[in-house]
Design goal:
heterodimer, A: mainly alpha, flat, B: alpha/beta, Rossmann fold, six-stranded mixed beta sheet, four-stranded antiparallel beta sheet, 9 helices, ATP binding (chain B), nucleotide-binding (chain B)
Chain lengths: 222, 251
């Protein structure tokens, strides 16, 4: 039995790499960046003492975490047109994934903000900083360090979750593999190559996480 | 005679059912050193934190310079910030910003809060670090310093905003005994320079030598106050005597 067609592996490496760098990676980068912005805003909303501000944030997190990502993708791409909003695959993918990442990351950010000792707020306030300045100059820089491990987790999950957008016709790594495999039914070979690509990307990210943690913890007492 | 620089009247504060302040008055003349002493739970730290709005009493007024806060009127954040701007604070656990260098810690108030020019703030911060004996540590991070050095940076940071009063919350209580002296010496020299200071402390020798007045608190009231030569040497109240006795002879 010859499950792996090595010539096909060689000839597909290039096109699949294309799917990775033109699809998976930019989609990951864009949605992670947007998701982080959403996460910080939502985390701050949830920490607000005002119920009218915190309740919508809590509802958003609850709905996103309580429904499948695939369904969220379908609602944006197939569902919104019936409300008169028709989006192309790429914008649909970016919107759905960003909203999803934002909800998960907001919990990590919220926890990290809460983990910054109260004395840091007090010290900032006694030198005259207001809430916004304290957040920006004192709390968020320290929360960023605390949030790195769980945000890295979110990012690594996101790399693989981007494969779901293949079902709404965004050409990324998985869809590229499907396209190449379909004529010859060489699914094992092509999916195998795609899996290796995903794995390598995640390995690199894990390595980056370790580097970042070391860098950010250099001024912190052990 | 002009009005004292700091005046707190009738401070009342509860945490749940626990009434920690039961009507406290504090009067601090400009250029003087006031030490608050008393057993733990006596309310001395709560008094200090009420002077800059880190705690908000249910009743009473606090005035520093020409800024007055009526605590009972549920003052908004801006009013509290205005009062807070009149003082600087040194914390028991120093609370330095760990992600900033020593120099950036000291300039944090002037630059981030007061919006002053970075160059000018840095120049003044270097002078303050020189003042507390840490000119060579400007580019270090707090974690690289000893406890005594960290606390001296905390003092420099509190002075950098040019406060009218400096509040010290047990500045040496978290330090190893051999590091206490270097912090107290800096505080003593600040007092000699004429800084107005309110100090919560257990260091009776410091209070004896440096304070102009000592307030002994117990159970949320000022039991006795006066110059250290009276309160610490010939206390009138039995509770004060008992407290001092326990400090001298813990066993």
């Amino acid at each position: 039995m010859n499950a792996i067609d090595w010539d096909l592996v060689r000839s597909s490496l290039g096109p699949l790499f294309g799917g990775l760098v033109t699809g998976t990676l930019p989609l990951t980068a864009a949605t992670f960046a947007l998701g982080l912005v959403i996460a910080v805003v939502v985390a701050l909303m949830r920490l607000s003492g005002n119920w009218l501000v915190s309740a919508p944030a809590r509802a958003y997190v609850s709905v996103i975490r309580g429904t499948p990502l695939l369904l969220q993708l379908f609602i944006v791409f197939f569902g919104l047109p019936s409300l008169g909003i028709t989006l192309d695959p790429w914008p649909s993918a970016i919107i759905a994934l960003s909203l999803n990442v934002g909800a998960y990351a907001s919990e990590a950010v919220r926890g990290a903000i809460l983990a910054v000792p109260r004395g840091q707020w007090e010290a900032a306030m006694t030198v005259g900083m207001g809430r916004v300045t304290t957040l920006r100059r004192v709390v968020l820089p320290q929360a960023a360090r605390i949030a790195v491990p769980s945000l890295s987790n979110t990012l690594i999950s996101l790399v693989k979750d981007t494969s779901l957008v293949s079902v709404i016709l965004v050409t990324e790594l998985l869809r590229k593999a499907q396209e190449i495999a379909a004529p010859s039914f060489a699914f094992f070979t092509l999916y195998g190559v795609a899996a290796v690509y995903y794995w390598v990307v995640c390995l690199v990210l894990s390595f980056g996480q370790t580097r970042l943690e070391t860098k950010l913890s250099r001024h912190v007492a052990v | 005679m002009s009005a004292p620089l700091l005046e707190a009247r009738g401070l009342v504060k509860s945490f749940g059912d626990n009434r920690v302040l039961r009507g406290i008055d504090v009067t601090v003349p400009a250029g003087s050193v006031t030490c608050l002493i008393g057993p733990s739970g006596s309310g001395k730290t709560t008094v200090l934190r009420s002077l800059n709005g880190l705690e908000m009493p249910e009743a009473g007024t606090v005035r520093i310079g020409d800024v007055q806060l009526d605590c009972g009127s549920r003052p908004d954040a801006r009013a509290v910030a205005r009062l807070r701007g009149q003082s600087g604070m040194v914390f028991q656990a120093h609370n330095l910003f760990p992600h900033l260098t020593v120099l950036d810690n000291v300039t944090s108030g002037p630059v981030f809060a007061q919006g002053r020019s970075k160059a000018e703030a840095r120049e003044e911060a270097r002078a303050l670090l020189e003042r507390v004996g840490l000119a060579d540590k400007a580019d270090s991070y707090p974690v690289q310093l000893s406890g005594g050095q960290q606390q001296r940076v905390g003092i420099a940071r509190a002075l950098a905003t040019k406060p009218k009063v400096v509040l010290f919350d047990e500045p040496t209580s978290a330090l190893d005994p051999e590091l206490v002296g270097e912090v107290l010496r800096v505080m003593q020299s600040l007092a000699a320079e004429g800084w107005t200071m309110v100090v919560v402390t257990h260091e009776m020798r410091f209070a004896r030598q440096v304070a102009d007045q000592v307030l002994f608190l117990d159970g949320g009231v000022v039991v006795e106050q006066g110059p250290p030569s009276e309160v610490l040497v010939e206390p009138r109240e039995a509770r004060t005597r008992q407290f001092l006795q326990r400090l001298l002879d813990p066993l």
